[in-house]
Description:
This protein is α/β, with parallel strands linked by helices. It contains nine helices and twelve strands. The chain has a single domain, classed as P-loop containing nucleotide triphosphate hydrolases (Rossmann fold, 3-Layer(aba) Sandwich). Adenosine-5'-triphosphate binds at residues 17, 36, 38-44, 192.
Amino acid sequence: MISSEDLLVRRVSLEGRLAIDGPLVAPAGAITVLLGPNGAGKSTLLRALAGIEPARVSASLDGRDLMTLPPAQRRATCYYLPQLGGSQAALSVHEAVLLSLKTLYPGRVRGEDLARVAATLSAMGLEALAERRLASLSGGQYQRVAIAQALVRRPRVLMLDEPTSALDLHQQLRVLEWLRGEADAGRTVLLALHDLNLAARFADRCWLLKEGRCLASGTVEACLTPERLEPLFDVRLAVEAGPDARPRIQALGL
Ligand SMILES: Nc1ncnc2c1ncn2[C@@H]1O[C@H](COP(=O)(O)OP(=O)(O)OP(=O)(O)O)[C@@H](O)[C@H]1O
């Protein structure tokens, strides 16, 4: 059943790139993972929902038509973190995270904002790097700064595009466990992921995308099956239940 606190996507289309026919649901309080091969349209869909791509979007959030939100409010409500980039900006890690918050609340820096920045740096294990310049960071360190810049704003919908692509195993689990907490706090978390086992472990729901279309959506158990995944990725797979009863996926070959 769709609640008034869901992100409900009815249709999204972008000439030649995306033809999503819903309904697709990303509930508040849940992690929804977008899965699909390279070029499937995962980033384009997230960008369309965030209002960055000039797509035709029919979607609602908390019962309100997403398109009626003024563009700045829509981007603040649905924060989109792109795939790993890098920054040469002459900012420290602390300044970069604080700047993200100041962009949301221009002209305001209160004690509570500094406390929020400190808590976010701590959540991402960045305290020791707080005074380091962005340009001096490793790829994985920079990715955690970018995630901290998203988290510090506490958006209603967090859309993170491949947020663990540069992270070591410890940091992958740290970030996903933190995102689990963000969902438990009532946010909607939407992630594009390539790691099927991370998706199996942390997601509540999946949207399976290929060639700009959504082939299936539903619970992890319903979506992460060989019948769904083998044609999606064009590989042979074995799926078995892990000790936590969630699927474990092994690639057997092409
Ligand atoms: N700015 C753009 N202009 C035109 N086509 C684009 C643009 N960006 C992406 N595309 C195309 O749109 C399609 C979907 O790309 P998208 O980046 O959404 O895929 P994805 O599922 O996120 O892939 P990946 O797993 O490789 O990140 C691809 O065919 C891509 O080449």
